[in-house]
Design a protein that fits this description.
- This protein folds into five domains: 2-78, no CATH class; 97-221, Trefoil (Acidic Fibroblast Growth Factor, subunit A) (Trefoil), CATH 2.80.10.50; 226-343, Trefoil (Acidic Fibroblast Growth Factor, subunit A) (Trefoil), CATH 2.80.10; 347-467, Trefoil (Acidic Fibroblast Growth Factor, subunit A), CATH 2.80.10.50; 472-578, Trefoil (Acidic Fibroblast Growth Factor, subunit A) (Trefoil).
- Helix content is 4%, strand content 44%.
- The chain has two helices and 54 strands.
- Strands 18, 19, 20, 21, 22, 25, 26 and 29 form an eight-stranded antiparallel beta sheet that branches.
Length: 579
């Protein structure tokens, strides 16, 4: 079924289409997602005092189509996630994204602050951190010591002089500003109204801002934990160096720039791409040491807002020396101690049928003639939501594009050029065919030349995409994170486990944990105790999601009860995994 919400007869006709979503009711999860999403929309529409009506239409093909929301000009924009219940994600290069922090706030009872879609009601009864429990901390440049909290409905949290709290303000104002105070352990936060000097509190539906004493909340980052981390003062990204984590990279290029934040009791550990943990003294430890490797996170506003990492001794992480060695040093925060977190996009190598990698080592023209992978054979894979196509970014921030003369491919394009977009068509054994803007497929010759001349998909038109910057990987679906609980692999957890992702020469991936390899059981369920590596394929399906195809030819899907099974014969929402 598809449902079209239209504005009522009080507005000029024809009615303005403001939302359209098509969804296939394959299981109860899809039904619940659709229900929750429509509730959010109705909440937005009702705030504008518009009448709404639902018009039923039949979906002709029953496929899953991402939601499309019309803007004020009537132009539809696509969500850049893997389902209509997801809030719209920022595109690559969004200059404001690194200055916004998505968090969840959990009270002393373990419940999350929740913004309900009907009437913008608030409560503190959320059992887990999902869309309605996600808040964006927005620094106020005009008031450096304060921060505003914005809900998933893009409304600001506010408190009046009588302690009444609401979440319906479209614009920031004096009553939407809060000061964050930290407990002695640095883990818990108190939110103090900057206007009235009273503290914010919440228990179930009793949410108010009238306490004279601090009321403590635990902050939890509401983001995928695999990120790039940049030091604000140096303007350099952290990366795994020689026995240390250094801040000396202008671009976060390659696997060594991947940082995984492992959560433990309100704190985080900083894990390098080789699986080792950063200690406060700058060493890398094979195992997580709670006294040495855990940091609490503090938000610092002002002209250069950022995050600070505080160790158990009250000192803050910074970067020292010519190579920018990461270690804690000072007990006060300056720009040297501030960092921003950015999404880690997939970076890949492209292997042609001749066994060589696509390279720009010999200039701007693309050739599949290199046997080893270096920075000139590494490309950032970026999804273009409006077209459903893909771009390949080089280390010099240029894109593959169709040459203006001939049919060659050069690494000289920019994001405004439509010839930088490639349609990706999956072939057997995880190979892909890439269709260029001229309607032809990329084709590799035996000697390495790559041209957009293929009229059909043969071996020369098939490429293997090798994921490079996830040597360890954390998976998340709409039900939660993937991890080990009660001696089984589950996908509805608040916490998560990081798994080793190993790629074979044949293009298959092996997923390994501390107790063995992922493997498919006779009933299709996924075990994490396999003695031998089992072959899986990864298919890139959106900006941050992959589908996982198991050795039995089926896709791995998640269930609301946490079960993971390789029994889906086609890709649907439950088969998409954020990584």
């Amino acid at each position: 079924q598809s449902f079209v919400i239209q504005r009522g007869p009080t507005l000029p006709k024809p009615p303005c289409l403001i939302y359209c979503c098509v969804w296939r009711f394959r299981d109860r999860f899809c039904q619940e997602q659709l229900k929750e999403h429509f509730l959010s929309i109705i909440g937005l529409v009702s705030s504008a005092s518009h009448h709404t009506k639902f018009v039923d239409k039949m979906d002709q093909n029953g496929g899953v189509i991402p939601g499309r929301v019309a803007n004020g000009n009537g132009v539809a924009g696509s969500t850049n996630g893997h389902g209509p219940s997801k809030p719209q994600q920022p595109q690559a290069g969004d200059p404001d994204e690194s200055l916004k922090w998505r968090v969840g706030l959990r009270n002393a009872s373990g419940k999350f602050l929740t913004a309900e879609p009907f009437g913008f009601k608030l409560n503190a009864s959320g059992a887990s951190l999902k869309m309605r429990q996600t808040w964006v901390l927005v620094p106020d440049p005009e008031h450096p010591s304060t921060v505003c909290l914005k809900s998933h409905l893009n409304r600001f949290l506010s408190a009046d002089k009588d302690g009444l709290v609401s979440c319906s303000s479209e614009e920031a104002g004096p009553e939407t500003r809060f000061i964050i105070e930290y407990a002695g352990d640095g883990v818990q936060w108190a939110l103090k109204s900057a206007q009235h000097g009273l503290y914010f509190s919440g228990e179930e539906d009793r949410v108010k801002c009238f306490s004279k004493a601090p009321v403590w909340w635990t902050c939890q980052l509401a983001l995928h934990p695999q990120v790039h981390v940049k030091n604000l003062n140096r303007g350099r990204y952290l990366r795994l160096g020689s026995g240390e984590i250094s801040a000396d990279r202008v671009n976060p290029w390659g696997a060594e720039s991947l940082i995984t934040l492992m959560k433990r009791d309100g704190r985080v550990a900083i894990r390098a791409s080789d699986g080792r943990y950063l200690a406060r003294g700058g060493e890398l430890l094979d195992r997580l040491d709670e006294a040495e490797s855990l940091f609490s996170i503090q938000v610092h506003c002002g002209p250069c807002p950022g995050l600070a990492f505080k160790d158990s001794a009250g000192r803050f992480l910074t970067n020292i020396g010519a190579t920018g060695t990461s270690k804690t040093k000072n007990q006060t925060v300056s720009k040297d101690e501030l960092f921003v977190l950015e999404d880690s996009y997939p970076q890949i190598a492209v292997k042609a049928f001749n066994g060589r990698y696509a390279s720009i080592k010999q200039g701007q023209d693309l050739n599949a003639n290199q046997s080893d992978i270096d920075v000139t054979e590494t490309y950032q894979l970026e999804f273009h939501a409006a077209s459903g196509k893909w771009r390949f970014r080089t280390k010099d921030d240029k894109f593959w594009k169709l040459s203006t003369v001939g049919s060659g491919i050069s690494a000289t394009g920019d994001s405004r050029d439509q010839s930088t977009l490639f349609a990706m068509e999956y072939q057997p054994k995880g190979r892909v065919a890439l269709k260029c803007s001229n309607g032809s497929y990329l084709s590799a010759k035996k000697l390495g030349a790559v041209n957009a001349t293929g009229s059909e998909v043969k071996s020369e038109e098939q490429f293997q995409l090798v994921l490079l910057n996830r040597p360890i990987v954390v998976f998340r679906c709409d039900f939660g994170f993937v991890g080990i609980k009660n001696s089984r692999l589950e996908c509805n957890l608040v916490s998560y486990d990081a798994f080793n992702l190993e790629v074979s020469d044949s293009g298959f991936y092996h997923i390994r944990g501390s107790e063995g390899f992922w493997c498919v059981q006779a009933d299709g369920s996924i075990s994490f105790k396999g003695e031998r590596p089992e072959e899986f394929l990864l298919e890139f399906r959106s900006r941050s999601c992959v589908a996982i195809q198991a050795s039995n030819g089926c896709y791995v899907r998640g269930e609301q009860n946490g079960t993971m099974r390789a029994d889906a014969d086609e890709i649907r929402a439950a088969c998409l995994w954020e990584y």
